[in-house]
Amino acid sequence: MPAVVIDGKEAARKKLEEAAAGAAALKKRGLVPCLAVILAGDNPASLSYVAGKEKALAEAGMESRNFRFPGEISEERILALIAELNADRSVHGILVQRPLPGHIREDRIIAALDPAKDVDGFHPLSVGNMILGRRAFLPCTPRGVLTLLKEMKIPTGGAHAVVVGRSNIVGRPLANLLASREINATVTVCHTGSGDLGRYTREADILIAAAGAPGLITAPMVKAGAAVIDVGVNRLPDGSAKKGYRLTGDVDFHGVVERASFITPVPGGVGPMTVAMLLLNLLEAAAENAGS
Questions:
Q1: pLDDT below 70 — which residues of the chain?
Q2: What pTM was computed for the model?
């Protein structure tokens, strides 16, 4: 029996409705959640992501302030802007769209953010608090994955979760969160040094692919009945597509759908959840600003 295809768009729609309802409640108190977005350069994927976030913010009744710069902008100019935004009480969240131009030190930029406005959850203090189980904004994509697992009632307690990928954006924080007492999974993290990848993935009750490698996970690598979450978003050239490319995940969807119990598609799976989680993080930041 084919897997249940998880509709990330529908799950995200429900969470965006929650964000909109929360924003409406704050608006009655004279406060509009506001996100400042900093974008340097003209990376097509970044431009697309930012446009999607702006659209979602507007539909939820939230404000976005966009700061777009040429790729040649200096690191000091961005740091100066962050200092201004940190001090601006009408701004509740700051998002620095990555990747940044090569001459800008990403770590220095992220560390300059006020952790109370770090709605992406990447500041070192945010990461440390997350690891220690303290209050922190969770990175949006990992939070989105956990929300999907909960929405679909996929058991995590005692489950063996295998995370393929160890990025600071998805793999590492997700592995930490899955191993938390609340989620209570047993976690294996795989990466380029893992050797025989299938040896590990075939043991997974929950398999999360976040390696950025199209088609990496094939049907023989998946345990029958496993829940498969595909975080990968890869742009492959496609002359027949309107935009000249098509999106594909890290999982061979058509093969794995016949073997798994649950699977997320690409696009339409984890991606929409990432944006929804950003808005919920922003709502929480604004509510704390209001003393809620």
A1: 291-292
A2: 0.95
